[in-house]
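Bench notes, bay 3.
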Amino acid sequence: MDAADKNDAGDPVEPAQVRLAPLTDHDIPDVLRLERACFIDPWERQAFEHEVRNEVSRSVVARDADDRLVGYAIYWAAGPEFHLLNLAVAPTCRRHGIGSLLMRRLIRDARREQAEFIALEVRVSNASARKLYDDFGFVTVGIRRRYYKNGEDAEVMVLRIVREPGPPTRRTGGGAARR
């Protein structure tokens, strides 16, 4: 393990030490710092403020035992689709399962809300993110040409949600019951 595998205090960060919580206005300054450290074309403050209030957003932050932000994921629940908009892990905390922890939360939420699939776009040059998504069973279904501001292409990846065995979940409202 080298210095890149440790938090600011020099201690390794493991998923067992990380707690997940919904994104709030209080988190935005930390999220902005992490966003700028992770992406060449970071989102602006207004985008995160919108996600806090967006009724389809299921944005979540990951904080370590010392309350330092170590990652976040922003995803939407839109009918049968969950769409991962953004996932980031602090560079000093990568390769310790935090990205996987955030992905498991996304998939759990998608199952709970009866999504049929999860979709995302990822830079073709982002090998580590593509590997994470591959490891969770995502498959590439297309390319969005010149998707990013710098003209880079994005792979479109999808994960079909497998429903857990058991009785179907009853949906409320909408129609007459059959007898």
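Next record in the batch:
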Amino acid sequence: MKKTTPRLYCLAHPKSTNAERFRSIRTNIRYSRVGGEIRSVLVTSSLPGEGKSTIAANLAAAMAENGRRVLLLDGDLRTPAVHEVFDLPNGSGLTSILVEQARWQDCIYPIQELEGLHVLTSGPISPNPAELLGSTGMKELFAELHNHWDTIVIDASSVLMPFSDALTLARMAEGVLLVVRSGKVLQKHAATAKQLLERNGARLLGAVLNRRSGRRRRYAIGSEELADWVTASGPRKG
């Protein structure tokens, strides 16, 4: 990581309001399951452009900040962005491991600015990402990575795309966060994404509202207002 990007609030702006919001999201996830902690979280959105990669990166940083060993895995093999958020090379990564051209141990990037945080980038674009993500090798790799990290955060493709990548990974994760960008996505799209995730056996932990206010971004999770917005079947008034 060559520089701390302003989008990584816990690193670049640790005392900011947004950094605190990501810590609140971390806490909500931690106590969302009775009898044990959530050890793998998939972050997705209904459509591209809602900010899921930035939110996944900040969530991973907030978890590592709390003393956890955290791996941020870029599972978006079609339009990967995690390497851009952290300013990392992407010549080898997840796809390289799955086609047996690299060992996972050689593809992990430790983030020097935050002890405990590591990144596995997507690797080169593959001609068959759906097959790779649904392969036995992916399931075995995911299980192996769980032996070395306390928590895995996965940045996945958007749900409402003409491929099932996000749904495939959602079945592996213990919980899913749905990113909803205010003013970007229609509520019917968010509701459809939520239904698809649940029908495919994903455990939806909540939705993160990515809201722009002037030049600032604000993040929220799990409010009654947001829950109503995501599940509404008709136009929301007011």
